[in-house]
TrEMBL record:
Organism: Planococcus maritimus
Matching InterPro entries: Acyl_CoA_acyltransferase, GNAT_dom
Taxonomic lineage from the root: Bacteria, Bacillati, Bacillota, Bacilli, Bacillales
Classification via PROSITE patterns: GNAT (PS51186)
Coiled-coil boundaries: none
Protein name listed in UniProt: GNAT family N-acetyltransferase
Region forming the signal peptide: none
Length: 148
């Protein structure tokens, strides 16, 4: 169900993009900010990403989480669920899986301050709000940290 996926593979990159764009459109609406970089990311840019991707797959890719690990800190870059699969526990399963794989590590993640579902999800795992920063005039993101 959850396994590492190879974003350098063109089909996989297309699958990532096919759920990433509609999911980030929803976050863009929540934030009132439509310049989220992942909205316009090309297949080639996805393929060149240096992030590690874990996919939640059944009949097809329903969600994924990506991260980079450096110096004992796991930085979550993306948590994406196909909007047709919202409220099915996929995001919770992906985050829980990643935390379980990297016990005794610190985690950081940023999300739109206005993205209440994402904020509540991270807080439910014990992530603590660390800072709020402005990404555009009047638009903020919140960084969370989980120290184990």
């Amino acid at each position: 169900m959850i396994a590492q996926i190879d974003q350098t593979n063109e089909k996989t990159a297309r699958d990532i993009q096919s759920i990433q764009r509609p999911a980030y459109r929803i976050e863009a609406e929540l934030m009132g900010f439509h310049d989220i970089p992942h909205l316009s990311e090309t297949i080639e840019e996805i393929q060149q990403s240096e992030e590690t991707f874990l996919g939640y797959q059944e009949e097809y890719l329903k969600g994924f989480i990506s991260y980079k690990e450096e110096g004992g800190i796991v930085d979550i870059y993306r948590l994406v669920v196909d909007p047709l699969q919202f409220r099915q526990g996929i995001a919770r399963t992906l985050v829980g899986h990643l935390l379980g794989q990297h016990r005794k590590k610190e985690f950081i993640v940023s999300t739109g301050t206005a993205n209440e579902p994402a904020r509540k999800l991270y807080e439910s795992f014990g992530f603590q709000e660390e800072e709020i920063f402005e990404v555009a005039p009047g638009v903020t993101c919140t960084q969370f940290r989980l120290a184990n």
